Amino acid sequence: MRKHTFEIGEYYHVYNRGVEKRNIFLDDYDLQRFLQSLQDFNTTEPIGSIYELSFQKPKLGTRSTKLNKPLISIVAYCINPNHFHLLITPLKNKGVEKFMQKLAGYTRYFNEKNKRTGVLFQGKFKSKYIDDNNYLLRISSYINMNNRDELGTPTTKLSKSSLEEYTDDEKGICDTKIVLGQFKNLAEYKKFALESWQDTLTRKEDLDFT
């Protein structure tokens, strides 16, 4: 039972990992398909299954003109071999629940691709309510840096975060304004993100997350 509801205009950290901590991304194609699904499934429109979509390879960041009714706004993300993190805010009533239900369709794609059966994720997705601005900024850093070491170097090639959308002005799927609007420039946020991440690692703090 969740300790909170998902309210429009509020922010949440949503995350999950593979059952028994197993890897849910085995190669770069899996990673790219999940990334594309973050975009393709973020709509109130019916769009078919992720397995069917897996045979299409649109460029990440592009969107069909009919997919113009997003369920959520994605502020930051990180995809690691055995888990993922999202910082999101709902744009529609039940937007988070509907989006995550669609995203769970990744299991069918993964199972059919790898000739397996059964659940892939460790139960229902987990979530934390972001109850103040300092928490919001720290979570943005935690998620953007989650696949990196204390020097900011990626720890594995089989991962992707939205960090470059925040520090290199890379085009992507995130709405960064709520965070970057509080910094003078991208370099200032990059410094904040690295220092905040180093502090988290030094204190061996996981903020109760995966």
Give me some keywords for this one.
35% helix, Alpha-Beta Plaits, alpha+beta, 5-stranded antiparallel sheet, 15% strand, 210 residues
Question: How would you describe the overall organization of this protein?
Answer:
Helix 5 packs across helix 8. The protein has a five-stranded antiparallel beta sheet with strand order 4-1-3-2-5. Strand 2 and strand 3 form a beta hairpin. The chain has a single domain, classed as Alpha-Beta Plaits. The longest helix is centred in the C-terminal third of the chain and has 17 residues. The protein is built from eight helices and five strands, in the order E-H-H-E-E-H-H-E-H-E-H-H-H. The chain starts with 10 loop residues before the first strand and ends in an 8-residue tail after the last helix. It has about 210 residues and is α+β, with helices and mostly antiparallel strands.
Number of strands: 5
Sequence stretches where pLDDT stays below 50 over 5 or more residues: 60-66
Strand order of the largest sheet: 4-1-3-2-5
CATH domain class name? Alpha Beta
Outline the biggest β-sheet: 5 strands, antiparallel
Count the helices. How many?
A: 8
Predict the CATH topology.
Alpha-Beta Plaits
What string, H for helix and E for strand, traces the elements in order?
Answer: EHHEEHHEHEHHH
Q: What percent of residues adopt helix (DSSP H or I)?
A: 25-40%
Distance between the termini: 18 Å
Provide mean pLDDT, rounded.
88
CATH superfamily: Transposase IS200-like
